Amino acid sequence: MDGAWSTVIICIVLALFCVFAVRSYIKKLKHGCCGAGSDEVKRVRPPDKDRSHYPYVCRIGIDGMSCKNCAMRIENTFHEREGYYAKVDLKKQSAIVWMKRPVPENELKELVRQAGYRAVSLETMDVQV
């Protein structure tokens, strides 16, 4: 009889594990990798959307992004500051950042870090982007 009880207990533990795993997976499908619905990121719009006002452009390679919330966090970090306009491309794992003034590389990398990600490359681009 002892063997039967241990089998029942093991089955219950496995069933609970499966239930929690499935619930977690469903949350990720609904809300992206960044968690539950309460963690959904609200988009911050840049005050000036006219790209012709931004004469400096760079592409930043970013490590650690995996969903639209990740992309929005990075864009918001730039948009919350005066003189930046950013657009993230998840497939390319990068962001194009338009700037009204020249900005040192370390400042751009620090903004990406503040958003919770890591800048892995940075290249200056022509304004036509």
Structure, explained:
Strand 2 and strand 3 (94-99) form a beta hairpin. A 4-stranded antiparallel beta sheet has the order 2-3-1-4, with helices on one face. Helix 2 crosses helix 3 (105-115). It has helices spanning 2-31, 68-79, 105-115; strands at residues 56-63, 84-89, 94-99, 118-125. 41% of the residues lie in helices and 22% in strands. The chain folds into 2 domains: 2-31; 51-125, Alpha-Beta Plaits (2-Layer Sandwich), CATH 3.30.70.100. The protein starts with a helix and ends with a strand.
Helices and strands, with pairings:
Elements: H1 2-31, E1 56-63, H2 68-79, E2 84-89, E3 94-99, H3 105-115, E4 118-125
Antiparallel strand pairs: 1-3, 1-4, 2-3
Helix pairs in contact: 2-3
Please give a handful of descriptors for the protein shown:
4 strands, single chain, alpha+beta, 2 domains, elongated, 3 helices, Alpha-Beta Plaits
The averaged pLDDT comes out at 85
Examine the coordinates and then state which fold CATH places here, giving the name of the CATH topology of the largest domain: Alpha-Beta Plaits
CATH class of the largest domain: Alpha Beta
Runs in which pLDDT lies below 50 for 5 or more consecutive residues are none
